[in-house]
Design brief:
Helix content is 69%, strand content 2%. It is mainly α and 379 residues long. A hairpin with a 2-residue loop joins β2 and β3. The chain is globular.
Length: 379
């Protein structure tokens, strides 16, 4: 057996041999452990105690970080600036929301064991066919992956087959999410209209208002982020990833040497959409609501800003950008809610001018400088 065959067989384990991946996973799991200990073991009266609200907030940040990794996979390594990944995030969130709504049963306001409250209010006679099966957890979790994946497959097949690239592809991805937002705002769609889906009670039999459940969702978000990061690193370090980078840098040349570029683009785009769907599914039970505003094109643009600020084509930079920006958003919207968009714009301009490769680029620059100083000192 050749070395090439051995390495290709274990392509999923290749990221674990990278120092950057080991460092990322170490920091992530250390953070999960610290938050868990400070929440469970430290008394509530202590200044070091992490309350349930903060745990819930951290879980939301981690789900956003997973979404940013999905966007960085297609933008950083494939060159596709998607302004519609918020749609895949929202569809995964709606799939989870439909499962959570079915778990309410007769405990709703109107006491109907089958129909959600908003359907009873709108005088629906029966459950729509596309709601069937969401009372089963395995079906709901499967749809979290399959629904955004199928949408990405259909959209990507039509777009990449027609060789739509560059700004034109960005525009139609934005048009996709805007069209879905308008559709989901309609009560006739059966997804709660502008109010969306809310008033969730439990997940897998656990009370969503319990601090233990919130801690469990936080840990699940961290594990999903680790798995998503490793999967994306495995893709970009494989032959598939090298073809993607070649497509990003010189698509015409990549086609000329015989690669069916659209197939690689479609596969990575679908994988990215499914990861975004998982992020949405983790987000919904932690915030307690999913509505059409998640389809907003502005939200998809904001995701791209997370990646740009953190560092494109690094994956871990996308995680840093998502956490930093959303933490800043939490602080600014509490202190100066009207100034948040100005602060975000100023931050983006500042990083673009001073750190064109993002925060991750700054880390790389400092690491190279330290290695240069070490070589000069040894010489």
């Amino acid at each position: 057996m050749t070395f090439q065959a051995t390495s290709s067989r274990f392509w999923l384990t290749r990221p674990f041999t990278e120092r950057a991946t080991q460092l990322f996973l170490g920091v992530l799991f250390a953070a999960l452990l610290i938050v868990t200990v400070l929440h469970v073991a430290v008394p509530q009266g202590s200044a070091l105690h992490v309350n349930a609200y903060t745990v819930n907030l951290f879980g939301k940040y981690l789900s956003y970080a997973l979404l940013a990794v999905a966007v960085d996979l297609v933008w950083g390594y494939l060159g596709i600036l998607s302004l519609g990944h918020g749609a895949f995030f929202a569809i995964g969130g709606y799939a989870m929301g439909m499962y959570l709504m079915r778990q309410i049963g007769d405990r709703g306001t109107y006491g109907d064991p089958v129909l959600p409250d908003f359907m009873v209010f709108l005088n629906w006679d029966s459950l729509p066919w596309y709601w069937l099966g969401f009372d089963m957890v395995w079906f709901a979790f499967a749809m979290v992956l399959l629904a955004p994946g199928l949408l990405a497959l259909i959209f990507g097949f039509l777009a990449f087959r027609s060789r739509v690239t560059g700004v034109y592809l960005s525009i139609i991805t934005q048009a996709l999410t805007f069209a879905l937002m308008l559709a989901f705002f309609r009560n006739e769609m059966g997804f709660g209209g502008n109010n969306g889906l809310t008033d969730f009670r439990e997940i897998l039999g656990f009370n969503l208002r319990s601090s233990d459940t919130r801690l469990g969702l936080f840990l699940a978000s961290g594990v999903a982020l680790a798995l998503g990061y490793v999967l994306c690193r495995a893709i970009v370090t494989s032959k598939l990833g090298r073809v993607c980078v070649a497509t990003r840098d010189a698509e015409a040349r990549t086609r000329f040497i015989g690669y069916r570029v659209e197939r690689f683009q479609l596969f990575v785009f679908v994988v990215s959409a499914m990861i975004a769907g998982v992020a949405g599914a983790l987000y919904v039970p932690q915030v307690g609501i999913i509505n059409p505003s998640e389809f907003s094109p502005l939200f998809s643009i904001e995701i791209v800003l997370w990646v740009a600020l953190g560092g494109r084509a690094t994956l871990y930079g996308a995680v840093i950008g998502a956490i930093l920006v959303n933490y800043a958003k939490t602080v600014f919207t509490g202190v100066m809610p009207d100034a948040w968009l100005f602060a975000l714009g100023g931050l983006f301009v500042l990083v673009t001018v001073l750190l064109p490769k993002g925060v991750a680029g700054l880390f790389s620059h400092l690491r190279r400088r330290d290695s240069t100083y070490s070589r000069e000192a040894s010489a």
